[in-house]
Amino acid sequence: MPWYISPYIVAIAISWLMAHIIKLTIALSRGSARDFYHQLFISGGMPSSHTATSVSVWWLLVLHEGIQSPIVGLATLLILIICYDAVKVRRSSGEQGVAVQQIIQKEQLDIPLPRAAQGHTPLEVCVGAILGTAVGLIVFFATR
Q1: Please, are residues 98 and 115 in contact by the beta-carbon 8 Å criterion?
Q2: CA distance linking residue 134 with residue 56, whole number of Å
Q3: Residue 132: which domain range?
Q4: For residue 2, is it within any domain?
């Protein structure tokens, strides 16, 4: 049995890395980049790395298993949950976190500022899906 890396793992790694390189590039162009380590694990921003990684794996599953496969149905459900969470739940939670930070600062309360995790806009999720589609298709045809 020859040693190889799963195309699913390759697609995840490439999608994640590309999404964060794009985020870093955008942050550098805006002059808002933090240190490289922080940029690799930043929450929110353009594009959504969660969406990119999950969509790249979804495409591999569709192309390997077929659209009728139960695993593709499960993967589709997971992507819908991930995208909904990014746009609705995490984005709303992040906006509330910013509001709480502003209240603490305005009232000059002696409370440590809580972290306000950033969610995604619908555009960031769509661009993540496009990136994931490109990576999934490239990995599929490169590993056939």
Answers
A1: no
A2: 7
A3: 7-142
A4: no
Residues 6 or more apart whose CB falls under 8 angstroms from that of 66 comprise 72
Dihedral of alpha carbons 17, 9, 56, 76, sign: negative
Q: How is residue 11 written in tokens?
A: 């697609």
* Spatial CA neighbour of 55 closest among 124, 119, 140, 128: 128
User: Taking the alpha carbons of 126, 19, 84, 70 in that order, is the dihedral positive or negative?
Assistant: positive
Please give the tally of structural domains in the chain.
1
14-43 pLDDT per residue, tens = 999 999 889 888 888 888 766 667 766 777
Burial category of 143 from C-beta neighbours within 10 Å (exposed 0-12, middle 13-18, buried 19 and up): middle
